[in-house]
Amino acid sequence: MNGRCVITVGDLGEFGVIARIAGRLPQGGTVLLGPGDDAAMVRAPDGRVVVTTDLLLEGRHFRRDWSSGYDIGRKAAAQNLSDIVAMGAEPTGIVVGLGLPADAATGWLDDLVDGFRDECDLVGASVVGGDITRCDLVVIGITALGDLGGRAPVTRSGAHPGDVVAVAGRLGHAAAGLALLTAGLTGPEELIEAHRRPDPPYACGPRAARLGATSMLDVSDGLLQDLGHLAEAGGVGVVLLPEKFAVPPAMEEAARLLGADPLEWVLAGGDDHALAATFPAGVRLPPPWTVVGHVVAGDGVQVKGRSPIYRGWDHFRK
Amino acid sequence: MNGRCVITVGDLGEFGVIARIAGRLPQGGTVLLGPGDDAAMVRAPDGRVVVTTDLLLEGRHFRRDWSSGYDIGRKAAAQNLSDIVAMGAEPTGIVVGLGLPADAATGWLDDLVDGFRDECDLVGASVVGGDITRCDLVVIGITALGDLGGRAPVTRSGAHPGDVVAVAGRLGHAAAGLALLTAGLTGPEELIEAHRRPDPPYACGPRAARLGATSMLDVSDGLLQDLGHLAEAGGVGVVLLPEKFAVPPAMEEAARLLGADPLEWVLAGGDDHALAATFPAGVRLPPPWTVVGHVVAGDGVQVKGRSPIYRGWDHFRK
């Protein structure tokens, strides 16, 4: 223990930290063996397992002065769980590799872990294991697993000309929130909250698979860029109809405050983890799915009546 | 492109790097959907999946001036695959989260990826997906998956008094190699190579499960510390017989050069990824399994005729 009132990760040591984390993680029905061994074991009922990983770095993907430990945990888990549902699968478990500064407060770590746990809880998954190591900055490596329940995975490559393009979930909220924070503003609060913590439409992923989605992905780098990947993978083009995108009042206000074009946030902003999918024309899509365009022969993504806006994220160019 | 003759990760950009990596990764028979979508899909024939993750940081787990990209890739994959076989499972696939400096040479990255690929190839697994992001230091987050083929997992907690304790694989080699490098020496070469690249006895894990191992783990932090975890998990004690441990000539030589006790490397050195397991007395153990002690009622790990040596690794204390 140190002389201050804050107990740090360094005070507890590696195995103290592991025990503390494991104690905060209830194990759900998908888990056959939880934390504490060389590996965990999770149910994979249909004989296949869907797997995705993401690496999040302090200063690049989050800032400890802009987001609480809890929000960072929620966001880190969310972006992985969203990749699982974007295949049409149900998340079952995540493992977390954590790099932590020795002077990180254990209370902050508790919040982070609770964030992982609560986000997993939304989808019936559990945090089944992990690894910790000392690092000068906070590093979070998350891998999520999922089960397709016998369904075919919905990949990026199945779109056909004539399909409709639909989205579910928020678009541009996180980007507007980040722009507000970067400008030193503290509102509109709902956009800043959206930057701190995404709200992916988890249930829409498996539901889209059942509705016959021909392709799907999660919007992490911006709708135009991500639909560009979908168009390229399918060998098709996409036409978006800008009038189909709702711009909520808070985003209009933020745009006024910052002199920005809200549609650019909607079309090019990342980190909300909406789902974008294509469906055969004529499929009745329940809310929150909204048709925003259609698939055409050709290539690329075109916004009808607008010159291209294409400013998606490239980690080595920004 | 920059003006130098070296093409960097930053020159290629995120999606160029991803395409380059994916192009080097053949997908084996366990893979149903490889890199390029929101998630990959791997066979899990017995309806359960074993999963483990590790986070490796430049400067802490490896140094680019001491190890080649290829060796770092081999080592990073090995330590995860070893955790899978330590459950008695067969590895099926890994996913890799990579943090890379923009000025990392693409040739170095190719070597790293080839290292992941070749280590996976040893066990019939594939690199099925990943994530890259920019980072000032190299960060490698690996998650490995495995299948138990209907067997029960061999956990850390099943040892009973009367069982024998056996090890398979090298002990103390990597620690001796690290001590040599730290002292500025370049030999004995086989020990330095052992530090750069472990050689886990992969086939011994599933085989131990079939032989009836009551508990097992991979020796990553040092035999005494890791057997300490096994003893604690099983509510038992372990007695080791020091005369049972072979000290090879190269290690005797290194000990002479450095004025060290080679048995301390063997008993307390990490990173070789040997397997340690307990078996019911009387089980005939084929090579390379070597009986080195036995399980007793009680607690802790005792080295017969020696005072305790317990200097295992704690990431927040070293």
Account of the protein in words:
The structure is a homodimer of 318-residue chains. Chain A is of the alpha+beta class. The first copy, chain A, folds into 2 domains: 12-147, 60s Ribosomal Protein L30, Chain: A, CATH 3.30.1330.10; 164-303, PurM-like C-terminal domain (Phosphoribosyl-aminoimidazole Synthetase, Chain A, domain 2, Alpha-Beta Complex). Helix content of chain A is 32%, strand content 24%. Chain A is built from 9 helices and 12 strands. The first copy, chain A, has helices at 9-22, 69-85, 106-121, 173-182, 189-196, 204-211, 223-234, 249-258, 262-268; strands at 31-33, 40-43, 48-57, 90-100, 126-134, 139-147, 164-168, 215-219, 237-240, 274-279, 290-296, 300-303. In chain A, the strands form 3 sheets. In chain A, strands 8-10-7-11-9-12 form a 6-stranded mixed beta sheet, sandwiched between helices. Chain A has a 4-stranded mixed beta sheet with strand order 3-6-4-5. In chain A, helix 1 runs parallel beside helix 3. Chain A is globular, with a radius of gyration of 20 Å. The N and C termini of chain A lie far apart (41 Å). The relative contact order of chain A is 0.16. The mean pLDDT of chain A is 94. Chains A and B meet through helix 1, strand 2, strand 3, strand 4 and strand 5 of A and helix 1, strand 2, strand 3, strand 4 and strand 5 of B.
List the helices and strands and how they pair.
The structure is a homodimer of 318-residue chains.
Chain A: H1 9-22, E1 31-33, E2 40-43, E3 48-57, H2 69-85, E4 90-100, H3 106-121, E5 126-134, E6 139-147, E7 164-168, H4 173-182, H5 189-196, H6 204-211, E8 215-219, H7 223-234, E9 237-240, H8 249-258, H9 262-268, E10 274-279, E11 290-296, E12 300-303
Parallel strand pairs in A: 4-5, 9-12
Antiparallel strand pairs in A: 1-2, 3-6, 4-6, 7-10, 7-11, 8-10, 9-11
Helix pairs in contact in A: 1-3, 2-3, 4-5, 4-8
